[in-house]
Amino acid sequence: MHQLLENRALWAAVVPWLAAQIIKPLWTLATTRKLNIFLIMSPGGMPSSHSALVTGLAAGIGNLYGLSSGYFAIAAVFAGVVMYDAAGVRLAVSRQARILNLMMDDFFHARGFNENRLRELVGHTPIEVLWGAVLGGVVGWLLTR
After folding, report:
1. Taking a C-beta distance cutoff of 8 angstroms, is the pair 27, 16 a contact?
2. How many CA atoms lie within 13 A of 11 on its CB side?
3. 12, 139 Cβ separation under 8 angstroms
């Protein structure tokens, strides 16, 4: 357990992820004047906690092992895949869920059919991914200096 707690690369990933999750309801409060504490557990929103996690890991690995190391290459490629997925595939899923929920409201609920709504906040806009990456990169780099 002691070794796990001393793993600086792990902390470089976890701390920015946690920070992003805490920032989400605060950002929503600042922009909409509505507090939604459940955003702390949400996979979507501003900033992207997925981006913060993987860029924090990549920044920490880069600091600890060097930018020319194989470890950094793996972390950087992993970060790219995760961020592409968050802003691409998962954003498309969010948009489709929103449309399907509207269709369900119009078609099924008018006929007494009751079905659970789909989760709409799943993916991230490119700006949410960018700010998550900035948060993760800065915090990950600072924690491993």
Report:
1. no
2. 13
3. yes
Provide the pLDDT for residue 1: 84
Tokens of 111: 């006929």
Residues 140/55, Cβ–Cβ less than 8 Å:
yes
What tokens does 125 get?
């806009």
Angle made by CA atoms 138, 126, 83, in degrees to the nearest 5: 65
Judged by DSSP in three states, 140 sits in helix
Q: What is the pTM of this model?
A: 0.78
DSSP 8-state assignment for residue 35: -
How far is Cα of residue 31 from the mean position of the Cα atoms in its chain? 19
Is the separation of the CB atoms in 132 and 103 below 8 Å?
no
